[in-house]
Amino acid sequence: MITQGRPAAPVRIGALVPLTRPGWVEAGRHLLAGLEQAAHEVNEAGGIDGRPLELSVRDTAADPLRAAAAVAELDRLGVAAVAGEYHSVVARAAAARADALRLPYLCSSAVLDALTEQPTRWVARLSPPQSHGWRVYADFLLGAGHSRVAVATEPSVYWAMGTRILRDRLAARGGTVLELDARALTPEALCDRLAEQRATALLLLAGFPEPAVSIVRSVRRDLRLAEVMIGAPAGQPEFAAWAGLLGGDGTAVPFLRYLPEPLGPLGARAEAALREKLGAPPSFVAFEGHDTITVLAEVLRTHGTDRADIAAAWPHVAVEGTRGRIRFSRTPGTGVWQWDGAPVRIVDRDPAEPDRFRTRHAD
Q1: Which of 94, 215, 226, 232 is exposed most, by the fewest CB atoms within 10 A?
Q2: How many of the other CB atoms lie within 10 Å of CB of 66?
Q3: How many Cα neighbours within 13 Å face the side chain of 194?
């Protein structure tokens, strides 16, 4: 009598994703699509030495405490590593707990520079540090003739760091940054301040959809501000909800996008698969998710599933991702293993064709 052998035990990866409010649900959906699509491709190619790759997904809801608890739960479940997260302050909490538990964590999309308080061997990141991307954005502003810049901001470590990066970069070249409290000022009062201060650009360092949508509508309708450029370095216009809510008012709003132009063959194949999975064009966040699993799968194949071996593998990674060849190095100020080759572009939605993105500046 012939009996079938037992199915190979899966290799489990914990996936942290914001899937409910107040998390940015659309970003979470794209991130999860990228993670799942890459896992599917890994399994179609034979898995990890014949073992299927399985994602254990946890919703962070943009809550740092919830994320830290999820990491602890995933640790108890015996995952080989943790991946994902979009919100910077949430990723920082997840990274701290992963470091304490000696659980490898590959951060997909959060950019806050100091992802951990102290340097750690357990954490790596794919997205570029905020200081790099936002300096590129500041250089774009200066190159476009904007040296008097206003920021509509809300209280947040992430927004505060962004403001400081912009101010330092612009000040070095004679520029100034005016801070406007998006919570204390109504959109109309904010427009009055812009007109009084003669700012030529307004950057939205505030939540989406509100107050960002109301601010954009008010500025677009104020004839005094017809020549003011609206910008959103954090990437709010990347997602379809932005265009859906703002229509033509949401075009010509430059933002940071971490995708090359054009995509290479691997990126083009991933784009087609992700478009089918999402039923819409994939954002750069979906590609970050895809690259996360691509990297982890290669590490698991070549270095095994032992957690210490995974963490030791970060400096030896050399993987072709959807957005270029991925290698990790130590970047000062981040505390983690960092991909320093992530593409950085500044794009906006074309007023003539709002679903098309125009490149305004490339790093």
Answers
A1: 226
A2: 18
A3: 32
